[in-house]
## 1
Amino acid sequence: MIAIAFAFFMAAACGYAFARGERSAKIVAAVVVAGSFLSIFAAAQTEELWQDSEPGIFMVDISMLVIFAAIMLRSDRYWPIWTTAAQLLTVLAHLGPLLRRADIAFPYAVSEQLWAWFILVQLIFVTARRPATS
C-alpha cells in the first residue's frame, strides 16, 4: 500500500517538476524517477528486503547522492543542499544492517523511505515557489 502511494506521489511531484520546474528541479525529478525504477530492479536481486545489506540499492543511492551533490555545487539556490543532505541520510541508513544485523529491519526500512518522501515534498515546494525559466 505504501509503495503504491509513493508511486502516485512520485508521479505527481516529478510530473509537476517536469512541467513547471526550473532546470535543477527537472534533473532532480529525473534522478528520483530513474533511481526509483533502478531500486525496484536492484530489490528483485535481494532475497529478503530490509533484513540485510542491499548492495544494489546502495549503489543506486550512492549514484543519486553524487548527482544531487553535483547539482548542489552548481546551483545558486539553497534547496539542493537539503536534497543532497536527505540523500546522504539515505546512504548512511545502509550502515545500519552492516553494523547491527538483529532487529534492524523496521528502522532501516523507515529510514530508507522517509527521506525519499521528504525529497518529493521539497521538489513540489521549490517548483511552486519559482516558475520555470528554462
## 2
Amino acid sequence: MRVLYSKILFLILAGLLGLALPHNAPAETVDIRLAVVTKPGSAQNIAAEKFKELIEERSDGGVRVTLYHSGSLGTETEILQQLQLGSLHMAIITAGPLDSFYPEIRVISYPFLFAGYAQADTLLDGPVGQKILDGLSRVGFKGLHFSENGFRHITNSRRPAHSASDVAGLKIRVMESALDIELWRILGANPTPMGWPIYAELQQGTIDAQENPISIAVVYKLQEVQKYLTLTGHIYSAHVDLANLAWFEGLPSAARELVQTCMSDAAIYQRAWSRAKEAGFLAELKASGMEVDEHPDLDSFRAKVEDFANLPLFSAPEVRALLAETLAAARAQN
C-alpha cells in the first residue's frame, strides 16, 4: 500500500512540478528546490537536511530535495524574492529579513518578548503563531512552521559590553530588517545592515560587532575576530519555514500534507538539536579565549526599549493589533 501511495503521489507531483513523463518512460525523481543562506552545521541547515531526509524517506525516493546553502543563491532577502517569484519551492529564513515583505512578522522579534524557550514554543506553536504563519499567504508565501535560530547575543572586538551604555558607538552588523536597525539605533550603536556571512568585515574592522545566537558564533568561528560576548538574549530569533504559496496550493492534498508534516517534524527536531548543543557551544567559545559576560545589566537594555511598541514600525493597524495580542499572550505565561 505504501509503495502504491508513493507511486501515485510521485505521478501527481511530477505533473505539478513540470516533469515530462512520456508513455512507458521510467519514473524520474521529483525535485524540490530549497534554499538557506547558512552553511552546513548551522541551524537552518539542520532543519533543511532533516526535511530532505524525511520527505525522501516517506516518499520512498519519489521526491528529491536539492538544497542550496552557504548563500549560493544570495542573501536571505534575495532568497525571499526568488521564493516569491516561484524560482524556488521552499526556504528557511530568519524572521528579521521577512519584515520588509510582511511587517506583521516583527511582533515575534520584539525585544525581550520571551523569557525562555518554553515560552517561545507555547506562543509560536499556538494560535498567535498560526495566525502569523497564515498571514504570510498575503505576500505569496505558505508559512509551514517555526524552526529556530535561538536567542541573540552581542559580540564585539572593542570592549566588554556589560550595559547598554557600553554599546554606544559600536558599528554593529544587523540583519536587513527595519526592526533590527531601529533597535540598535535606540541602543546607541551604529547599525549597519548586511547580508550573511560577515567574517571578512569583522576581520578587517569594517564593523566592530554583530549579534546572533551562540551557535552561529561557533559555526562561523567568530571567536577568531571577536573578543567579547555578552549574553543579552535581547531577541528570540525564529526561523520561518516557507514554501511558495502557488506551488504549495497547486499540490494535491496528500502531497501538501506530506510537505507540511515533514517540515513540522524537521523544525521540532532542529529546535531540540539547537538547545541540546547550546551549552557545549558556549563552553567552546570560552575555551577559545573569548571573554563572556553571562550576567550583563539587562535592566539597562530593557530601559532603552521600554517604548518600543510606540515606534512607527508597529503603526499599521494590523501590525499594532497583532503586537498587542502577542504581548498579551507572552505576559499570560509569566
## 3
Amino acid sequence: MVLKICSSKYFLWPFILASQIVISIIWYYSGIKDEFIFPNSKSYNIEGYTDVIDGGNTEVLEQSVSDSLLIYSFHLKEGFVSPYAGIKFTSSLEKFIDLSNYNQLCLTVKSENINRLGVAIYSPLDEEKKLNEKDETLFHSYLSISKRKKIFQIPFNDLKHPEWWEDMHQIANKSDVFPDLNQILHINISTAYTPDISEEKSLLVYSLYFSRNNKRLYAYLFIGYIGLIVLLFVVIYWVKYRKKQSSQLTVIYKPVEIIDEENKWDQKCIEYINQHFHANELNLEQVAKETGVHQRKITNLINEKFNCNFKTYINRIRIQEAQRLLTKTDLNIGEIAYKVGFNSQSHFNRVFKAEEQMNPSEYRDNQA
C-alpha cells in the first residue's frame, strides 16, 4: 500500500516539485558570497576617529593598514565625558552598502588594554527625526575582547538602538526594530565605555565581513519538506484507503483541576528583573524569554504595580543601587555607572538627575 501511494502521480508530481523548490532555494542561498569590508582596500575606505570631534583630547598613536592587518593605537584622555576612539568603514564606490543578502556580521579582532568593543552600523534617518543635518540611525552591539585573537559572529537581530540614542531622539524601546540593510552608510568599531584611561590601547583587526548563516533556513526547509511529504501521504491515504469511521467512544473522566498560578509567575518576573538589573543589555525580550511570561503581560504587570513602564522601573532600581554605592563606597561615578548597568556616564547622569533632581556628585556631597 505504501509503495502504491508513493508511486502514484498524485504523490510523485508534488514530491518532485517540492524537491526542486527546496534544492533551488538551497542552491541560491549557499551561492551568496561573503562581502569583505576588510581586507578590501579597493572597495572600502578606512578612517580612524576619536572624541576630538566632541571636544575631547584622545590622541591617535598609530594607524596602519596592510593586506592582512589593521592596527589602531591610541591614548584615551580626559576632556570628553566618556573618552572614545574607533574606526569607520565606508564604501569607496557607492553611497550606500547593500547588505540585504546577509544576516550576520563577522569580525576577527584582538586588543591591548581594551575589554569591551562596540560594533555599529549606520543607516539614513527620517528627516523629521533628525536633530541635525548629519544625524543617522544607529544599531549596535557590544563585544568582550582581549589579547587573544577571536572570531565574532554577530547576527543582525542582535543589533539594537543604544539607550542614549533612543533617549536623544525620544524613541520608545522596541525589540523588533531592524536596520534598513539596503542602505547602510558605514560600519564603525570603537571602544565602549572604558573607566581606565591611563594606558595606551591598541585594536588589531584581522577581518571584517558580512556573511549569511543558513542553518535556521535549512532547518525550516527540512521541517517543511518532511511535513509536506507526510501530509501528502496522509491525504492520499485518507482519500483512497480510508475505512469506515469507527463508532465514537464515550469516555467518562474526571476534569483536570485548574490551578491559578498567575501570582507565582508575576513574582518570578519581578525577581528576575531585580536580580539582573545590573546587566546593561537587560531588556523586555530577555526577561520574557528567561521567565516564560509574555512581554505584554510583563509590561502590564509593572504598570499596575509600580505605575511606570519597563525601562523606567529598571532605571529606578539602578539609581537606588547607585545611591547606595555613592554613599557607602569611594568608587568614582564612572565605575558606579558601569556597575549598576549603564553603558555611559553621561546617560547615567541624565537618568539620575531626572529621578533625584540633582546629579550624582551633588548627591554624594549632600550625604557626606
